[in-house]
Structure prediction request, 168 residues.
Amino acid sequence: ELIYHPIYDSNHCAFRILNLLYDSKTRIDGVETILLMDYYLLFPHFLKNIRLPKSYIGYKKYLKQIPKPFENVPNENMLFFKLQQIQKQTLQYLVAKDIIEKEKFLEGQIVLKNKPFLGELIKEIEKQSYRDEKWYEFIVDVIPQIGLMGDDGLKVRTGLLEYRYDVI
Prediction:
């Protein structure tokens, strides 16, 4: 039985990443941050597994209310690991197509270029129903603010990325 899922669709990945970059009011430092944001956009029910800093604990009740998907979702870590391959290729494609600023990307920042051709795409982005959800607000506004590194970083708080060998 063959079933479509957006996790394996690089075009869907590009659209999700562009959504996140368009809506995020915070600078996105590090490729790993956008990878996590995209992962949680694809699987928002996993947001409840993040150990939140005390300053964001108010989001916990909203995140717990996100329903589980109908499909059977495998191990969270394995899923994130598989998704990263597609995400990284998609980011490289967006840089190559001059949609993401190459110089900033090489410095570790993910910055969307302001191109005229994004006009039609922005109309599609603004149609997405999840843009009004509290969990989406959490992804685009809070996740980039938490930061990746250290004992309080997203790597430790999510358990999805290796952190023990990071230089802090």
Q: What stands out?
A: The helical segments are 10-23, 31-42, 60-64, 76-96, 102-106, 118-126, 134-146, 154-158. The CA atoms of residues 133 and 141 lie 12 Å apart.
